[in-house]
Amino acid sequence: MPHRTSASTLRMRALIAVAIGSLCAGLAACAPEPMPVPTTASPSPSATPRGDGVLRIGTLFPTTGSTSFLARAQDAGVELAVREINEAGGVNGKPVVAYHRDSGDASSTKAEKSFDDLMAKKADVIIGPSSSVLAERLLPRAVAAGVAMISPSATSPALTGLQDNGLLFRTIPSEALEGAALAEVAGKDHKVAIIYYTDDVGRAVRDQLAQGLTEVGGTLVAKVGFSETTNDADKIISVVNAAEPDVIVLVSPFSAMTKNKAILLALTKAELGGAKLWLTSQNLADYSQALPKGTLENVNGILEGAIPDAAFQKRVKSADPAVKDFRYAAEAYDATILAALAATVAGDDSGRSVAAALTAVSSGGIKCTSYGECLDVLKTRTDIDYDGISGPIGFDTAGDPHPATYGIYRYGSNNKFSFVSTVIAG
């Protein structure tokens, strides 16, 4: 598969959340094989041109480190998918094997060591990592080894244009696409202003929003950037207010929380808050302790990813009863199902063969919504289109899902947000 050019422009988004209990190093439902981490990194062996008949899935999620609360649901999503694949007959007549490893967070080199360990286990596909930073760091290893890498939660726009030899995919949309989604959800026939932090994500969302508004009859009437050196929130608001927008979008990282609070207070004072205001994935957070009561009442938010229904949550808990936060479980599950379907269609389990078939099994064919159903379609047809728990997926030429699934949220008077609905946009 040739190098893919950029189709559109996670860092892991930091979201204030209630602390979740400490995570185990592995899942009770996982294969009982231990999870050692080598003390020294060894060169990743190259994958052979064709597989050995057994599809081996390796996971890289942070069971330790600052983002460890994300790992349990993703590991359980993969384990559930593997179980269901094997119950349906496996891949090309052989059971799928899964190995679970700890990526740690971006402050350590645990991800590299765990990746090398998975290569020693002859993994064909990596589900993970959760972090955009780690995905970019591990990509050269994946390219050298010829393994497909599918992240359920890495959202950085930078991943779209990397030199990946067609091996990097994700079942979660790029943060840049929030701009296109917001245009569809909130911008139709409206005047829109955007206040954005001048980093890669902020600029990408700004550009996607501007492009999206032209397609829905909206107008971008103001775009105001700010940075860590910006100290005058009132000046930002005066520019926005003069444009008389119907909708205001604030795009800023959690790391800019002091400035975020100042801007939110200034917007509220200028009567530009409430239902007019939209927060985005990086700053959608619990502000109950940070802002006066009522500041964010009726403010909207958008966040990439699906909210699993009760039936899927029950299935996930059958893989690991200790799961409480289901974030990215659906995306991890779908990544695993897609890898198995790609290996089935390719008739080969090697990483390169899986990667080459992923786009085809995710779009353009007969729709199917489970591994077993897709196998039934393949008995009489050659082209399938898997629509998963996380949404339609449909990989583009950059390995990004189009369209994508987003959750819409609304704040109450306590400055906490709650789920309203799911939209498919972008």
Tell me what the structure shows.
The chain has 426 residues and is an alpha/beta fold. It folds into two domains: 185 residues, Response regulator (Rossmann fold, 3-Layer(aba) Sandwich); 151 residues, Response regulator (Rossmann fold, 3-Layer(aba) Sandwich). 33% of the residues lie in helices and 17% in strands. Strands 7-6-8-9-10-13-14 form a seven-stranded mixed beta sheet, with helices on both faces. Strands 2-1-3-4-5 form a five-stranded parallel beta sheet, with helices on both faces. Helix 7 links the parallel strand 8 and strand 9. The radius of gyration is 22 Å and the shape is elongated. The N terminus is likely disordered. It comes from Terrimesophilobacter mesophilus.
Taken as a percent bin, the fraction of beta residues is: 15-25%
Number of helices: 11
Number of domains: 2
Under the CATH scheme, the architecture of the largest domain is 3-Layer(aba) Sandwich
Q: Indicate the structural class.
A: alpha/beta
Total E-strand runs:
14
CATH class of the largest domain: Alpha Beta
Can you write the helix and strand succession as a string? Answer: EHEHEHEEHEHEHEHEEHHHEHEEE
What summary fits the major beta sheet?
7 strands, mixed
